[in-house]
Specification:
Blueprint lengths: L3 E6 L3 H11 L5 E7 L2 H10 L4 E4 L8 H11 L4 E6 L4 H10 L3 E4 L5 H12 L4 E2 L5 H18 L9 H11 L4 H8 L3 H15 L4 H14 L1
Parallel strand pairs: 1-2, 1-3, 3-4, 4-5, 5-6
Length: about 220
């Protein structure tokens, strides 16, 4: 049986070694490497292909959410499992929208549960603790659905890739600040993009933007 190949990314040396010691006890998991920040993780993945990356959120330089987006742009097949002390739902939303397959909070999982989570995300499942609210899951579902549907439709013709991303987040109910945090752009830039989107689609509000997409989807 092939082992699940893991990269551990955390700026805390003790945390990295603790995770390694847990996982190396499992016969079906192999820790291939460690990285102390997002930049090092991206460099490592350029040369190697892990099955699962254990990713901290808060790190100096490139943080875990930005690194998740960068890694998945490089190698979409890699699964990212966030391991962090941060448990607010806005951060969880940003991580999952960036493409993370799972989100675990330190103190809320055992070594055995960590191993199970690694296996789960490697197999294509989602693992999130603490429990995510129904409202947040629905927001993620709507966002992913809207982005997928508009990406395949003619609505993208007048829009740039960035404008499509913003339109999808608008459809998910995200505010300007949340869109900026998710896409790592300033709120002023978000507003400028939205004005351009409205002009291109000849609409005047978020409600009209959502209605436009739904109307287009029903006609496609």
């Amino acid at each position: 049986m092939s082992r699940i190949k893991v990269l551990i990314v955390d700026d805390n040396f003790v945390a990295r070694r603790g995770l390694r010691s847990f996982l190396e006890m499992e016969k079906d998991i192999s820790v291939l490497g460690e990285a102390a920040n997002g930049n090092d993780a991206v460099s490592w993945v350029k040369e190697n292909t892990p099955d699962v990356v254990l990713m901290d959120v808060r790190m100096p330089g490139m943080d875990g959410i930005k690194a998740t987006s960068e890694l998945l742009n490089l190698k979409p097949e890699v699964k990212i499992l966030m391991l962090t002390v941060v448990e607010d739902q806005t951060t969880i939303l940003r991580a999952l929208l960036a493409g993370a397959a799972g989100y675990l909070v330190y103190g809320q999982f055992t070594p055995d549960e960590l191993s199970l989570a690694v296996r789960a995300v490697a197999a294509g499942h989602t693992k999130v603790t603490p429990p995510v609210s129904h409202e947040l899951l629905e927001k993620i579902r709507r966002s992913n659905s809207q982005i997928h549907s508009i990406a395949e439709s003619e609505i993208t013709e007048p829009l740039t890739v960035r404008e499509v991303e913003i339109l999808g987040l608008i459809a998910a109910g995200a505010g300007n600040q949340e869109i900026g945090q998710t896409l790592y752009i300033e709120e002023k830039t978000v507003k400028n993009h939205i004005n351009v989107i409205y002009s291109k689609l000849q609409i005047k509000s978020r409600y009209e933007a959502i209605s436009y997409m739904l109307r287009h989807k029903s006609n496609s």
